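In the lab's daily routine, each protein ends up as an entry in a very long ledger. A line of letters takes care of the sequence, but it says nothing directly about the fold. The three-dimensional part falls to structure tokens, numbers that each stand for a local backbone shape. The outcome of that step, for a single protein, is printed below.
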Amino acid sequence: MKIEVKDDDKVIIDDFEFYGHIDQKQRCSNCKFNLVYYEDFDAYFCPKCNYWTESKCSDPDCEYCPNRPEKPLPHK
């Protein structure tokens, strides 16, 4: 897996580009890899395990959760 940071607000993981950042303080509870913040969904995920670290909220008016995919990285 190749992870790059571009212009301080974009992350590229294996050619998949999105707005966010790599969190240097938070780590995955399973594999201890640094978590990544995905701005479009206002959520953190582990790129190695390819799972969200938090559940979707139950707010019907939430602008983030209803459109959040099951997995953060579509190519894994």
About this structure: Residues 3-67 form one domain.
